Amino acid sequence: MRTLIISVILSLFLLSGCGQTTTSRSLSGGAMGAAAGGVIGSMSGNLGQGALIGAGVGVLSGFLYDQHKKGNID
To answer: Could you tell me the end-to-end alpha-carbon distance of the chain, in angstroms, rounded to an integer?
Structure first.
């Protein structure tokens, strides 16, 4: 079960950069992060909090990926 969770998180992280604009990359990252956070949160008994934390991490990772692709971050 733990391996499955780690695999899902890693695959969602790799896909968080989907899109061509900052907004689309941030939103796709947020959606995937919310899904992953919801899954993890439901296993610990707190679906909503896990989804919110995952969404925040996903939006941030999508934004940072976008900035890296634009050359603003090394």
So the answer is: 35
- Residue 46 CA, chain-centre distance (Å), reads 18
- Whether this prediction's pTM lies above 0.85 is answered by no
Predicted confidence (pLDDT) per residue in 38-68, tens digit: 888 888 888 888 888 888 888 888 888 888 8
DSSP assignment of 2-55? HHHHHHHHHHHHHHTT-SSSHHHHHHHHHHHHHHHHHHHHHHHT-HHHHHHHHH
Smallest Cα–Cα separation from 37: which of 20, 57, 17, 19? 57
- Here the tokens at position 42 are 């439901």
What distance in Å separates the CA atoms of residue 19 and residue 11, rounded to the nearest whole number?
16
